[in-house]
Structures are given as structure tokens and as C-alpha cells.
Amino acid sequence: MLDGAFLSHVLLWVIGAMTVCAAVTSFIALFSLGRSGYRKD
Q: Which domain of life is it from (predicted)?
């Protein structure tokens, strides 16, 4: 089961998941930084 094709597929999915998480986190961080200038807390 743990052949080269399976391991490369798992590695591709891990890199893809990390990329999606980083993009979502970056978008949320930039959105919150942009909104913080308008708040008057």
C-alpha cells in the first residue's frame, strides 16, 4: 500500500491543504487589519 505513487499523492494533498490554510489565514489577517482602521473602540 505504501508505494511511491501513494506517498506522492499524500504529499501533494498535504501541500495543497497547507496552501489553502495559509491563503485563508492570510485573507482573514489582511481583512482584520484593514477593518481595524475604521473602528473607534
A: Bacteria
Q: Within the chain, what is the greatest distance between any pair of CA atoms? A: 58
The amino acid at residue 5 is A
Evaluate if pTM is beyond 0.85: no
Confidence of residue 40 (pLDDT cuts 50, 70, 90): low
**The three cell numbers locating residue 10:** 499524500
Q: Please state, in angstroms and rounded to a whole number, the distance separating the CA atoms of residues 9 and 32.
A: 35
State residue 13's pLDDT score.
98
Length of the chain: 41
